[in-house]
């Protein structure tokens, strides 16, 4: 007879940014650590308080060692919509689960956390005193307690309409904090080598988490730029590798991107970025290469492909080629041939990327990439499709009133076969997505209209 796994309830305190990215990150990390995502809430929306059911505290701790979307996690002892409901909930919590943290040899403190409201010190003390019915036998230690307990009160999301009483009150034992400090410690502002499109540190870690990057993985970025996504993956113990078509960027040559700095320094490159954070041992290499013509032997090499392709706005979309059409029978260019840079349509770029991922990812490996969209025309059918890849999540980050980019996470679920290479041409998704080849023109068209509108309003 199979043993039934008991699940404890935990309270996640979430950060209030990148709201659409939070749920896929938590789901991906729980999947990575063997925990099933079981929730007592149907939807999360914008609330910072999430109640989860998890099989063990170890999984909860592992989750917090990775997440940048969550601030803290608590073992939930009680929950109510009023103080009375909370106290009744606490009285029904099993005493045997409380005792290990309340015995006479232990030290503790109780903290108050309120969302969307500030309490006076007198109000805080009153709330703590009301918990005297709990069997605390240890001593209070405000500086270095062995155990920390928290009362968390939710006053809703509207700062202009704060209720007198909270909508929800929670009480729990603090277990661990998330990795929010990584956003500051890996800030692009402090980084040795940056470019025009260097990825924000917080989003880089979110992408690595969506990709389920773990120790000893091999992670690849085919549009590596200055290597920001490699840094996030290397921080989690993965070996990193990348390519880019831009010779100067790969070798750290040419004009600098920083203000008041004309040229890049002699040691301003991707390897130096990883060295800056003590991650150089995870750096495999970065090559000058064209993503439209990968020079890989057939095989599965990568546990994750995490990338931010160019959209044609601050970085051009380019591939190598010849102005003269090369006859189909010739597979190799003459030695004297110097490739020139040609335009690379967005639809071609993303379908090449999906094909490459389907060929080179291990089964269960993930592709995480940004897809630019013109918001008024966007539909889900415009997300590129591939028979070997399953869509895991699709999160939006707004860029302007009329454009956004979507973080697409896909997982390889089927072994690649030669016939899969052109299957997208038969897909209903293909023709709608080709409309985004004009994303650049639509982007700047919107910018021009906005400037004209602002000028008119200033003249009135």
Automatic annotation (TrEMBL):
Q: Which GO terms describe its cellular component?
A: cytoplasm; tRNA (m2G10) methyltransferase complex
Q: Where is the Ribosomal RNA large subunit methyltransferase K/L-like methyltransferase domain?
A: 190-320
Compartments where located: Cytoplasm
Q: Which Pfam families match?
A: Tmrp11_N, UPF0020
Q: Which residues form the tRNA (guanine(10)-N(2))-methyltransferase TRMT11 N-terminal domain?
A: 9-180
The catalysed reaction is:
guanosine(10) in tRNA + S-adenosyl-L-methionine = N(2)-methylguanosine(10) in tRNA + S-adenosyl-L-homocysteine + H(+)
State any single GO MF term: tRNA (guanine(10)-N2)-methyltransferase activity
Instruction: Identify the keywords attached in UniProt to this record, alphabetized.
Output: Cytoplasm, Methyltransferase, RNA-binding, S-adenosyl-L-methionine, Transferase, tRNA processing, tRNA-binding
In the UniProt record, does the keyword tRNA processing occur?
Answer: yes
Give the enzyme class.
transferase
Question: Could you provide one GO biological process annotation from this protein's UniProt record?
Answer: tRNA processing
Purpose: Catalytic subunit of the TRMT11-TRM112 methyltransferase complex, that specifically mediates the S-adenosyl-L-methionine-dependent N(2)-methylation of guanosine nucleotide at position 10 (m2G10) in tRNAs. This is one of the major tRNA (guanine-N(2))-methyltransferases.
Subunit organization? Part of the heterodimeric TRMT11-TRM112 methyltransferase complex; this complex forms an active tRNA methyltransferase, where TRMT112 acts as an activator of the catalytic subunit TRMT11.
**Family per record:** Belongs to the class I-like SAM-binding methyltransferase superfamily. TRM11 methyltransferase family.
* Protein's name according to its UniProt entry: tRNA (guanine(10)-N(2))-methyltransferase TRMT11
């Amino acid at each position: 007879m199979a043993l039934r796994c008991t699940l404890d309830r935990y309270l996640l305190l979430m950060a209030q940014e990148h709201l659409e990215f939070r749920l896929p990150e938590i789901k991906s990390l729980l999947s990575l650590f063997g925990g099933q995502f079981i929730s007592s809430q149907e939807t999360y929306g914008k609330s910072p308080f999430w109640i989860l059911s998890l099989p063990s505290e170890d999984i909860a701790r592992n989750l917090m060692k990775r997440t940048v979307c969550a601030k803290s996690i608590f073992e939930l002892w009680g929950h109510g919509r009023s103080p009375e409901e909370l106290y009744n909930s606490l009285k029904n919590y099993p005493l045997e689960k409380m005792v290990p943290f309340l015995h006479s040899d232990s030290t503790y403190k109780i903290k108050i956390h309120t969302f969307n409201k500030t309490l006076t010190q007198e109000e805080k003390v009153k709330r703590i005193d009301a918990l005297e019915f709990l069997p605390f036998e240890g001593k209070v230690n405000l500086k270095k307690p062995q155990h920390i307990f928290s009362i968390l009160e939710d006053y809703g999301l509207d700062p202009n309409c704060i209720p007198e009483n909270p909508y929800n009150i929670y009480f729990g034992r603090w277990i661990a904090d998330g990795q929010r400090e990584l956003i500051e410690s890996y800030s692009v502002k402090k980084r040795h080598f940056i470019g025009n499109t260097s990825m924000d540190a917080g989003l880089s870690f979110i992408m690595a988490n969506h990709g389920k990057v773990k120790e000893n993985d091999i992670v690849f970025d085919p549009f590596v730029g200055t290597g920001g996504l490699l840094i996030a993956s290397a921080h989690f113990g993965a070996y990193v590798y990348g390519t880019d078509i831009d010779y100067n960027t790969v070798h750290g040559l040419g004009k600098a991107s920083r203000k008041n700095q004309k040229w890049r320094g002699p040691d301003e490159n991707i390897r130096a970025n990883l060295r800056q954070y003590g991650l150089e041992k995870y750096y495999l290499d970065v090559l000058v290469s064209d993503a439209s013509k990968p020079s890989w032997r057939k095989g599965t090499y990568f546990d994750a492909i995490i990338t931010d392709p160019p959209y044609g706005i601050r970085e051009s979309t380019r591939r190598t080629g010849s102005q003269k059409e090369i006859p189909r029978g010739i597979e190799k260019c003459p030695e004297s041939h110097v490739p020139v840079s040609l335009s690379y349509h967005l639809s071609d770029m993303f379908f090449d990327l999906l094909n490459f991922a389907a060929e080179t990812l291990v089964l269960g490996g993930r592709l995480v990439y940004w897809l630019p969209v013109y918001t008024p025309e966007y539909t889900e059918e415009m997300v590129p499709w591939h028979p070997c890849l399953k869509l895991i999540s699709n999160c939006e980050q707004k860029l302007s009133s009329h454009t956004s980019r979507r973080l697409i996470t896909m997982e390889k679920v089927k072994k690649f076969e030669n016939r899969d290479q052109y299957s997208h041409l038969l897909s209903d998704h293909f023709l709608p997505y080709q409309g985004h080849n004009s994303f650049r023109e639509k982007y700047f068209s919107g910018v021009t209209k906005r400037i004209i509108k602002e000028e008119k309003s200033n003249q009135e």
